[in-house]
Amino acid sequence: MERKTTRELDAQALKAFTHPVRMRMYELLEEFGAATATMLAARIEENTGVTSYHLRQLAKHGLIVEVPEKSKGKERWWRAAGFSTDTDRFRKDPATAEAAEVLMAGIVRQRSTELLRWVEQSREASRDWIEATTHTRRSLRLNREHLAELGRRVKELIDALDDDEEGEHVVIHFDAFPLRRDHDG
Predict the structure, then answer these.
(1) Cβ neighbours around 37 below 10 Å, total
(2) Which end of the chain, N or C, is surrounded by fewer C-beta atoms within 10 Å?
(3) Closest residue by Cα to residue 104 from 94, 113, 91
(4) Distance CA 158, CA 172 (A)
(5) Does the predicted TM-score (pTM) go above 0.90?
């Protein structure tokens, strides 16, 4: 299987991504896996012309990639490609500030939706899956260097994992940030 790569968004990709239809289609590709324009059109109740156009825009910026082993003839299958972005840098630039805010709000909304869905589904989940999941909240006093190191190490762990075709689709949320900033330094 092709290893998923994480790319850094540039300003044009950020602006292209934050269109509501594109963000929703990307979420669906992440949640349900590879799909065609027709499949996505049915899920978001749009026509295939709309979804095809938005898929092309996402692909143009490397936010999704074609799945050649599934694509046949004119039927193209797409999957989400991982990405990261320095939202703080984009929030400070007037040309990209609005798109960065839309992206951040979308990420928070998606995380909340996924977590609430899991809370509901976990009532019926097997004990093995309940024990395999984690919901950790820990408050530590760290300096900037330790916080940055924590982020690097978690990212390395996540990036080292390969998709298991027999496995369940799992989402990993990781946030580490100061609770409040009383001073700079």
Answers:
(1) 24
(2) C
(3) 91
(4) 8
(5) no
